[in-house]
Structure formats: C-alpha cells, structure tokens
Amino acid sequence: MSSLGDESSPLRVAIIGSGPSGFYATEALIKSGLNVEIDLIERLPAPYGLVRNGVAPDHPKLKQAIEVYKKVAQNPEFNFVGNVTVGVDITAEDLQQTYHAVMYTCGAETDRQLGIPGEDLAGSHTATEFVGWYNGHPDYRDRTFDLSHETAVVIGQGNVAADVARILAKSVDELKHTDIAQHALDALAESRVRTIYVVGRRGPAQAKFASKELKEFLEIENCRPYIDPVELELNPASEEEINSKAGRGNKKNVEIFHQFAGSEDTGKPRICIATFLKSPLRLEGGERLEKVVFEANELSGEPFGQSAQGTGQTTEIACGILFRSIGYNGVPIPGVPFYDRWGTIPNDAGRITSEQGGAVVPGLYTAGWIKRGPSGIIGTNRACAVESVESLLADLGQLDADRPGREGLYQILGRNGVRHVNFIQWEKIDAAEVAAGEPKGKPREKFTRQAEMLAVANG
Amino acid sequence: MTTVVTENCKGCRFTDCVAVCPVACFHYDDEMLYIDPDVCIDCSACIPECPVEAIFEEDDLPEGQEQWIEINAEKAPDLPLIEEPMEALPEAEQRKADLGF
Ligand SMILES: Cc1cc2nc3c(=O)[nH]c(=O)nc-3n(C[C@H](O)[C@H](O)[C@H](O)COP(=O)(O)OP(=O)(O)OC[C@H]3O[C@@H](n4cnc5c(N)ncnc54)[C@H](O)[C@@H]3O)c2cc1C
Ligand SMILES: NC(=O)c1ccc[n+]([C@@H]2O[C@H](COP(=O)([O-])OP(=O)(O)OC[C@H]3O[C@@H](n4cnc5c(N)ncnc54)[C@H](OP(=O)(O)O)[C@@H]3O)[C@@H](O)[C@H]2O)c1
Ligand code: SF4
Ligand code: SF4
C-alpha cells in the first residue's frame, strides 16, 4: 500500500502566510525528502511578510533573509499563490477539504490596545500603522500622520518602538537611499518633530530593546539620545537582574542608557528621550491629541518578575502625535480556532487544537507569530516552524489521504472569481520595483497599491 | 560588523545556536562551529541561545578574543554547513560545567 509522501501519492500541504514561518515550514517539508506539493497562500501579491513590511528600511542587511526564501521558492515542490486571502477568497473549511494538511503561518497583523480614554483621538496611532505606512504595505497606504507638532511620544520599549523612534529621529538624508516608501519619505521631509519621548511602564533594566538597536541611536546624525541620569537609579531587584546571567542583555542596555545620559549636546536638531516607570492614564485634547497624562509607577515583585504598580502621582507630556507600540495581536480567521486572550491559534507543538488546551483538530497546524504570539525575531520562526513540521510528519498515517490539492484549490478560486499571483508574476513585480528604485539610489521603490502590483503581474 | 563564535565553543558544541539561524551560516569541524561573515545577517538570534556564551557581536568581543573574527572568516567557508542541531560532543556537559555555566 502506498502512503502519503511516497512517489505515487504526494503529500499536499497548504501553508497560509508567506512570512518567515511560512517559508521555514516550506523548507522543512522539502527537506523531509518526502514527495510533497506545497501551496504557499498569501493575501498580498508580494511574499515575505514582515521581512518586507515590518523590518525597518534602514536595516537592509536583515532583509537579506529574503535570499534564503528565494532559494526555497526555486524548488519544484513549491508554488506561490499570492493575492488570496484565506477567510475571504476561500474558506478555511474548503482548504481543509482540499489538502492533506493546512498550516497557518499568518502572523499577528493587528495591534494591542491600551484601553485608556482618548486612545482614538486624532493624532493617536499604532506603531503597526506607522510601520506599515513607511514600509509601503498596501493596507496603510492612505494613512496620514500629522508631524507638524514638535513633540512625539512612543509608548512601549520594545524593538518596534525603537524602529518607530529611529525613523522619526533620522533625517531624510539618512533614509533616502533605503527602500522606505516614497510617500513616507515625502511626509518625513516635512516633519517638525524635534523631541521624541520613548516611554516605558517599567524601569531601564526591564526595557525590551535589543542592545544593538539602542546603540544605533548613538550614531544618528540628526538626533541626540538622552536620559535624565536620575532615571537610571535601579532598585535592588533590578540590580540583581542585570548582574545575573539571564540579565546579560539588560545589563548592556543599562550601560548604553548611561551613555545616553552622558551624551553631550552637540546641537543636533532632534532629541530622543527615553523615560521610565510611567503608564499612560489618558490622552487629552479637543479636536486632536494635545497631551498624555501618565501615572508614575514603582516596581514590585521578585527579580525577573517585577511589575509596574501605580503610585497615584501623575505627570504629563504635551505632544501632537503618539504611537502605541505595546505589541501585535493575531487576527482570527473564520473557521480556524482562536484563543482571544493571547491573540493566537491554540495549539500543541504546532498541532491546532479546538480550543486552548482542547483536542487536536486533525490536519491543521500552525507556526510563527500566530502560534507563539508576537515575539521573537526572524530566526526564532525557523526553530518554531521545524517543530510544527515535525508534528505534521509524525501524523502522516492519520491524515485523510483523499485530497485533490492544487487542482482543487484552483477550481475553488476559479469558482470564487479570484485571480491569484504566482511566483513568476511576483518576480516581475520584484524586478519592476528594483528598476523603479534605481534612479533614486534606492534598493527598490515598492508598489504600495495592490492594483499597481496586479497590473505589472498581469502585464 | 559580523557575529563570531569564540573559544568557549571548543569541545562543547551544543549547537542550540543553529536552530534559530535564519540564513544557515554556521559551519563546523570536529571541535567547534564558525560563522560565515559573508552570509550572516547579524540578527543576533543565536547569541542568547548559546549555553556557554560563546557567540558575540564583533564590536562586543571581550578583550583578547579579537582573533576569532579572522578565524571564523577563514575557516567557515571551507567547512561543511550545519543547518539542524546535532548531538553535542560527548564531553560537552563536563565542559559546560568547567566553564562555569
Ligand atoms: C515592525 C517590526 C520590525 C521587525 N524587525 C525585525 C528585525 O529587524 N529583525 C528580526 O529578526 N525580526 C524583526 N521583526 C520580527 C519578525 O518580523 C517576525 O518574527 C516574523 O516576521 C514573524 O513571522 P511570521 O511568518 O510568523 O509572520 P509574518 O511575517 O507577519 O507573516 C505573515 C504573513 O501572512 C499573511 N497573511 C495574514 N493573514 C492572511 C490570510 N488570511 N490569508 C493569507 N495570507 C495571510 C501576511 O500578509 C504575511 O505575509 C520585526 C517585527 C516587526 C513587527
Ligand atoms: N531589530 C530587531 O531585532 C527587531 C525589530 C523589531 C521587532 N523585533 C521583534 O519583534 C517582536 C515584537 O516587538 P515589539 O516591540 O512589538 O514587542 P515587545 O518587545 O514585547 O515590546 C512591547 C513593549 O510594550 C510594553 N507594553 C506592553 N503593554 C503595555 C501597556 N499596557 N502599557 C504600557 N506599555 C506596555 C512592554 O512593556 P513590559 O515589558 O512592561 O511588558 C514593552 O516595553 C519582539 O520579539 C522584537 O524583538 C525585533
Ligand atoms: S550553542 Fe554555543 S557552544 Fe554550542 S555550538 Fe553554538 S556557539 Fe558553540
Ligand atoms: S547573527 Fe543571525 S545570521 Fe548571524 S549566525 Fe547568528 S543567527 Fe545566523
């Protein structure tokens, strides 16, 4: 008897989302040596997820991860099905009936809310929107950001907050040879922002920045990083944290913060100020945002388990624009289990379960941010996707063998009137972007509208 | 800038680092691992994974370890690639303890 993955019966897998986790899952399946047919379904005409649309334009080296994905895409087992949104253009149920296995690697595409009054005032934005906008993500093409006020506030102290602050801090000259979207470059050229506050609810020893991201602030031509030295006094538990092995990175951060505190004023036009132990209570303003009111915090708890407790004291920062950068959140897909509290797909080592802690749903798998939650860097998703693929391969004997795969997918898409973009078409879009960037000295000028991409793809 | 494997990896080779490398730039010999600087994208994913703190960013190298920049660059390209974790060397646990981890 033949079994799935044999020469005569290919294992047909749909992977939903072409970010790092989708590509690493594809790679792991191909490396299994089984006979596999993989359809990587992506809602945009462009692959690569947050490596294209999240990673900052001034970090081109990190975007070279794409070279690995390009190689994966050259395998005959691989097929790209772009411009198809699962849950809209095809249902999750239809996919499940079409493939032996479906793996969701669709990332965490929305933002977490602060849940405070005034959050929806004009001038209050999410980092998600701003990042999508400067990276040319079609969903955020028409957002506008009023950069006419001198003070901007970023809430949160993770690497995304660092990206947002750095893009606000840099001069256009420092950005113009990156793949930043032209509309963003034009708007940033008019920016009057001079002071950028990056506000953490806990202390300097708990900031989640990567030290490398912090160090970069010392090199920005246009902006001086600064911290009031008083804010760098640590409580005993934080001292214990940074002096233990697990606090190696935090210790480095605190050392860099001291460099910020001691940085000289050399007349740079902008200043980026990190400030700690403040939770936003409310945003105030009439027509639009005018100020943020914070409650001062103190830390309580054991080392590495310290949380912020409000002291009742308040402080304010007057500002014209605010970005909350407190984490991403998964978006549920109809028909796929979802655990609201964590914003993830409930799973057991990558096998999707009916609910958190529930029974395994045969044939459904997940990897990446939607499996683990929105943390971890590009490489983290490789180990994560490998785990999920191992689970899938261990289940081969239990999968329903009678599935049409690609042919069935194309039938359904045809019936639903959906025209997908294949990898060769994407390569046309890619080449056109690179060509459009060249005269400007940019690695590429992205198409920021789906219609433009489709015109090139179908041209 | 690049990222380098240093002395501590010798005779240890737990290879936890390899699982999270997004671009497959680790190479190995009988003793230890090396990073190919032409392929590494400096994402730092591997650094916290190493149980014996053998991996450093170039400009973060402890004093006296600078020679490893060249050693990695010279050795890596000619050695076999390692993309999946493999079994640690037999003396690895002992070595880890000796190194104080
Ligand atoms: C602003 C920002 C900057 C970052 N910078 C770095 C960095 O510098 N270095 C680093 O190592 N890591 C960085 N990261 C982290 C890294 O980007 C993530 O770890 C990684 O992208 C997560 O991979 P993923 O495949 O799970 O999700 P994603 O990369 O988000 O990919 C998900 C894909 O699924 C698609 N999709 C979603 N829903 C559907 C649907 N219904 N149907 C079809 N397709 C769908 C999306 O369009 C997307 O292409 C950054 C993250 C952010 C947010
Ligand atoms: N260059 C890079 O390597 C790079 C670049 C970008 C992103 N990434 C990765 O992508 C992942 C996501 O990054 P991220 O910055 O979105 O998330 P993150 O690292 O989890 O940071 C979120 C920040 O928001 C704060 N926060 C959460 N809820 C809050 C609230 N209610 N009020 C005030 N502050 C709140 C957190 O503080 P607490 O600590 O107190 O919770 C933390 O400072 C991370 O793993 C990151 O490393 C990497
Ligand atoms: S985890 Fe550390 S010790 Fe182990 S192989 Fe990697 S660098 Fe060497
Ligand atoms: S820094 Fe990143 S790319 Fe370089 S070796 Fe480590 S994990 Fe691989």
List keywords for this structure.
heterodimer; A: 459 residues; alpha/beta; Rossmann fold; FAD/NAD(P)-binding domain; 2 domains; 7-stranded mixed β-sheet; 6-stranded parallel β-sheet; 17 helices; B: 101 residues; alpha+beta; Alpha-Beta Plaits; two-stranded antiparallel sheet; globular; binds flavin-adenine dinucleotide; binds NADP nicotinamide-adenine-dinucleotide phosphate; binds iron/sulfur cluster
Molecular shape of chain A = globular
CATH class of the largest domain in chain A: Alpha Beta
Structural class of the helix and strand makeup of chain B?
Answer: alpha+beta
**Rg calc of chain A:** 23 Å
Layout of helices and strands:
The complex is a heterodimer of chains A (459) and B (101).
Chain A: E1 11-16, H1 20-31, E2 36-41, H2 49-53, H3 60-63, H4 65-73, E3 78-81, H5 92-98, E4 101-104, E5 110-111, E6 124-126, H6 127-134, E7 151-155, H7 159-169, H8 172-175, H9 182-189, E8 195-199, H10 211-216, E9 223-226, H11 236-242, H12 248-261, E10 270-275, E11 278-285, E12 289-300, E13 307-318, E14 321-324, E15 328-329, E16 347-348, E17 351-353, E18 360-366, H13 369-372, H14 380-394, H15 406-415, H16 423-437, H17 450-458
Parallel strand pairs in A: 1-2, 1-4, 2-3, 4-18, 6-14, 7-8, 7-14, 8-10, 9-10
Antiparallel strand pairs in A: 5-15, 11-12, 12-13, 16-17, 17-18
Chain B: E1 3-5, E2 26-28, E3 33-35, E4 55-57, H1 67-75, H2 92-98
Antiparallel strand pairs in B: 1-4, 2-3
The structure holds flavin-adenine dinucleotide (FAD), NADP nicotinamide-adenine-dinucleotide phosphate (NAP) and iron/sulfur cluster (SF4) (2 copies).
In short:
The complex is a heterodimer of chains A (459) and B (101). By secondary structure, chain A is α/β, with parallel strands linked by helices.
Task: Give your account of this protein's structure.
The complex is a heterodimer of chains A (459) and B (101). Chain A is α/β, with parallel strands linked by helices and 459 residues long. Chain A contains 17 helices and 18 strands. In chain A, the strands form 4 sheets. Chain A has a 7-stranded mixed beta sheet, with helices on one face. A 6-stranded parallel beta sheet of chain A has the order 6-14-7-8-10-9. In chain A, a hairpin with a 2-residue loop joins strand 16 (347-348) and strand 17. In chain A, helix 1 (20-31) packs across helix 14 (380-394) and helix 16 (423-437) crosses helix 17 (450-458). Chain A is globular and about 70 Å long. The mean pLDDT of chain A is 97. At the A-B interface, helix 4, helix 12 and helix 14 of A face loops of B. Bound molecules: flavin-adenine dinucleotide (FAD), NADP nicotinamide-adenine-dinucleotide phosphate and iron/sulfur cluster (2 copies). The site of NADP nicotinamide-adenine-dinucleotide phosphate (NAP) has 25 residues of chain A, from helix 7.
